[in-house]
Amino acid sequence: MSQAKAFSIGVDLGGTNLRIAAVSPQGELLEKIALDTEVKEGRERVIADMVGAIRDLQGRMRGASLAGIGIGVPGVINLATGMIRQSPNLPGWNEFPVRDDIERLLKAPVILENDANAAALGEHWVGAGKEVSGLCILTLGTGIGGGIILDGKIWHGQDGMGGELGHMTIDPNGALCGCGNLGCIEAYASATAILRMAHAAINVGRSPALRRAAEEVGELTAEIIYITAQQGDRVAREIFELVGRSLGVAIGNLVNIFNLPLYVLAGGVARGWDAFEAHLMDEVQKRSVVYRATQTRIEPSKLGAEAGLLGAAYLPFQAAASGAGAAAH
Amino acid sequence: MSQAKAFSIGVDLGGTNLRIAAVSPQGELLEKIALDTEVKEGRERVIADMVGAIRDLQGRMRGASLAGIGIGVPGVINLATGMIRQSPNLPGWNEFPVRDDIERLLKAPVILENDANAAALGEHWVGAGKEVSGLCILTLGTGIGGGIILDGKIWHGQDGMGGELGHMTIDPNGALCGCGNLGCIEAYASATAILRMAHAAINVGRSPALRRAAEEVGELTAEIIYITAQQGDRVAREIFELVGRSLGVAIGNLVNIFNLPLYVLAGGVARGWDAFEAHLMDEVQKRSVVYRATQTRIEPSKLGAEAGLLGAAYLPFQAAASGAGAAAH
Predict the structure, then answer these.
(1) Cβ A156–B288 below 8 Å, yes or no?
(2) DSSP state of A291
(3) pLDDT confidence of A323, banded at 50, 70, 90?
């Protein structure tokens, strides 16, 4: 197979969006298809949509050879079996042989990966971390995911559950997290947490600006709260200060633990970087002895929403290069 | 060189004690010399004592070949140069070529390593972790050190500062740590923290039992506070509950991050295991989604005070096995 004519398929299988791309060995996004994930229609329908889109892209790439398919999924993956162990966003997919099913339908090697791990790999391949040996990523969305790249490879841990960074306790008596714990970083720096704080402020009459914004748009979003903060509203600014300080505690801990060259913030909330960066950096500086003694970068994602898609597409190339074929290890 | 007749030298160079041992490739402690570290007499004197003891052991091991010398040091090591970057317990050693000096004097390869990293390696080689691929260790002494073994090797990070686990923030507005930060685990679970909490209780008249114990022995120690707790004193028990809960937050975070099979507690405070185990486990169970979903062991050190000595002795064997010679990587 000529490397120059190879391509791989990356899939970002989210609870809402299903995106499929053909990607070159150099990390160029060649072709892309964006669909809705028809979760309510059932697993078979989603897989049929995915397989149809991949065949469509294969047709467009005629003449080039498919190195394999990487699929990023919001959940815990059983790396040995290629099944999803748990995914709140994909009900009914638990313990279903996704990998084997798609391999059978497409006759191509398939690698399943957690979506935050895929995003970490994407940033390492062609994003913010393309010149470093390792990085941590926090994906700040509805929840907070995490991914860790050490010596160029995803750190999975013994059960594939490594990098569960969103549930780091940063305040032992702090806000209640969806996982049942008090004070997870997810309860402070996810879009859900930002909305919770804004609604609490509106409910006690603390922020007329946020109340007006909510009334105008019908439903608040983290982005609207960010815009309100940038317009100078004190309460919205305080919310993003808490986001930044909380992320600073979490990242300060990660810097002390790993001493990696780079920590990346991705996901929708990371687009509010301007509103929390100063607080985050202040906190890391105060809290991390390793940060103060080293050259450590803390940056927003460079690939944005494409990080997971590109990282998923890199999986088959990486497996081929390491001689492992399509077998996850 | 016949492997059966090889041995290595491990050195545990502490601020108070200097221990040197000859160790077999199977991890048997063959010969040991224990000295005081004459820090006040200066660096040259300490090195002369160390070199003298190593020559003594070489004499006793006549007929066997020396694979190399590993030295565990309480400080940050520059792995490339073999110099100590910073060590509060060894003033005057900063930026001094310890490794090259001892290699020159003894004509044998020398590897310098942080003492907690050496303890982690020792536990992995022949201690609590000899059947697992990786582990984290927390050494609970005057301060708290940390070491991380991933796929059988010490995780150093880009500057050799990885595994700085003692300064993980576990309570952002908590107790003041010696590093200047608020709420480091070191401010809750080191011997220093235990003494601080006991003295605070005595000063406000909360614990007659601890006051009596302090008067009897002249100076409180963490061990006496542990004994007082085991005798049923409520305040001493509360102190160890806080130790356990704080360690539970820290270890819960590490379990979520790494998903390793084993987390080890070492150092003097770990001998108080009975007084804090239940609180630690309760906290990890509540806080760590990964702990709840996996088989993860949390245990006291198996090698006790010998962990660092044995880990240091393993360094030359490991370097030889990985083909890296004595060069740190």
Answers:
(1) no
(2) H
(3) confident
